[in-house]
């Protein structure tokens, strides 16, 4: 099983590099999002409905991933590896994140209006009044935060359970991605039916956020960023997102700011175009490191 784990992680990483993302019409996460849309409405008992939504909806993608990979493994072990690799690929994302962030950063200097149009696909904030500096800050913040949400969390879930069985690993990654999707769509104060989804996401992201901060610090080749991040990580409303973002701010020695929400490393200046691009490159190296560690965990387990 250890060798299969390594092959699955390598396959997912290669697909991420070459394919980026599946078309929206067939992407499992997008399909799940349409299901979440049906739950995003007024409820007579919103908090109770929120608990039901948070517990019930992630079961569907989890069951599908487990079932598909189980059938594939039963047919042939290699087919099981391919199915698990495809499942892990659909629940993780790195290359598209890097490209979107780099696109916003590049446009922030040459065409701020275009950068504002692109930003909503990357960060959940109103870009209308954001200056080029704040657009670049948003891109770096989103890249570092989504390293945890979009890659490290599902990858870690898979690596923990795949040694038991590939179907369990794929199911764990699918469940965690579903929980994160629920939070991103429903977990706002304005949506009382999303409170349980937000709290569940806070719980499951506790470890991945801190692992992501360590990976960013390792990618910067210094322990200082993650140590410095301890001073600023509490500025964000989320108990988790502050860790990777504050680590990125420390590594780049820049100020990262979401107006009327938080400021990280307030004594520094907002990122220049060059610094922001270095931030995206830092996230890219941390992502590759995450893939490598997950793949090596299978190799190490295989050794006598």
From TrEMBL:
Supply the InterPro entries for this chain: Cobalamin_biosynth_CobD/CbiB
User: Where do transmembrane segments lie in this chain?
Assistant: 48-71, 151-176, 282-303
The keyword Cytoplasm belongs to this UniProt entry's keyword annotation? no
Keywords for this entry? Cell membrane, Cobalamin biosynthesis, Membrane, Transmembrane, Transmembrane helix
Spell out the Pfam families in the cross-references. Answer: CobD_Cbib
Q: Does the keyword Nucleus apply?
A: no
Q: Which GO terms describe its molecular function?
A: ABC-type vitamin B12 transporter activity; threonine-phosphate decarboxylase activity
Membrane protein topology class = Multi-pass membrane protein
Q: In which pathway does it act?
A: Cofactor biosynthesis; adenosylcobalamin biosynthesis
For biological process, the GO terms are: cobalamin biosynthetic process
Q: Where in the cell is it found?
A: Cell membrane
This protein's GO CC annotations = plasma membrane
Q: Where does it mainly reside? A: membrane
Annotated family: Belongs to the CobD/CbiB family.
Q: Which PANTHER family match?
A: COBALAMIN BIOSYNTHESIS PROTEIN CBIB
Q: What does this protein do?
A: Converts cobyric acid to cobinamide by the addition of aminopropanol on the F carboxylic group.
For this entry, the protein name equals Probable cobalamin biosynthesis protein CobD
